[in-house]
Amino acid sequence: MTAITPELLTEIRARFAHVETCPFTGPRVFFENAGGALTLTSVVETSARFAAIPDNQGRDNPASAALGEIIAKAREDAALFLGADAGKVFVGESGTELLFRLIADACLGTPGGVVLGSTVEHPASRSACARWAEVSGKRHVLVPHDDATGTVTPEAYAAAVTGDVRVATILHTSPVTGMSMDVPGIVAAIRAKAPEALIVVDGIQHACHGGIDIASYDIDGYVISPYKVFSRHGYGLAWASDRLSGLRHDALIGAPEGNWELGTRDTGAYATFSDVVEYFEWLGGEVSGESDPRARIAAAGRAIHDHEAALTRAMLHGTGNLPGLAEMAGVTVVGGVDNPAREGLVSFYADGQASPDLVAALADQGIRVHTRKADHYSGNILAPLGQADCVRVSLCHYNTEAEVAAFLAAMQRILG
């Protein structure tokens, strides 16, 4: 397998909209990918094309039949991207809404017992578990994460799991620390004591970094937000196992068994996810000699991981004659400097500097980053550290080392 070369990186960047320029403010470096990745130009074109189509699915006309075929293909493409060889793929309002639905059905479809999650999780899954554990008469137990590394381990789950765990949730990657969890290891720890538990994974932050293999996880649900993986806002995408799909859930009277979707869905949303999968296949073909589509997607994921790891190393340890964040006086990196779990994201804070002020100062120098505050979104990570806020710098594989250098130079000027 070959790396993402400068020449290939130029081709990659040409496939995305607004890579170097914000349509509202002008030239900028985009390091806010965890808040929503850049959009493929093919997705923009597909969205416009399908927005103009007046027909709907389920009608007796050729246009309607074509829409049905596009949706069927998109489901197959999504299953290929996710590495799922069974179960159902469907879209909903958002990733958060789909997590709520999967978790609600898992809780309501199982008797008593425990809903097991962790303190590292995003409030999407934690809030759903808290609500539906109460409604279904279950206890909600949270496995504590390690504040120093920003991760929760299989060993921590193993210490907390009991035989009466009915539902369990796992965060694949944290949008605050950027750290990825050992999903197969955590699943094995849960299954060792609660083999029948329904396990739902929040993959929203992980998906753009590649490397999803549902068939190897032994789970029951996986959710992503396509706007964070090069598609657009307005829909979420979920996979549910046959076991989870077989439970009772919200459905129209007389509707087919196991159908998750309520009402007519946007064919364009499905079609844009096919664009995403096609992009991963193209990239995998550029970095490997693979011809099989799934093997190409896997190769793309490895190349993405390696490129982003190189960018985060440069951000932490410097590039050229520019010192990295780890060498800047008064700067603390959330989750530690050399953390192998990190995926394309660095969060930090600086002594004597309010993070919102740093974000504004970076914006003035053309660097787009984001503030994470100790609120309902990020308080679970920041409050134990005694931090009111931090700066989140989130990278993607279309970012360049020159952009990292621009960020470090701006930080030098700001910190003096």
From TrEMBL:
It holds the Pfam family Aminotran_5. Gene3D superfamilies: Aspartate Aminotransferase, domain 1, Type I PLP-dependent aspartate aminotransferase-like (Major domain). Keywords: Lyase, Pyridoxal phosphate. GO terms for molecular function: lyase activity. Signal peptide: none annotated. InterPro entries: Aminotrans_V_dom, PyrdxlP-dep_Trfase, PyrdxlP-dep_Trfase_major, PyrdxlP-dep_Trfase_small. Residues 29-250, 323-407 form the Aminotransferase class V domain. PANTHER family: CYSTEINE DESULFURASE. This is Selenocysteine lyase. It comes from Salipiger abyssi.
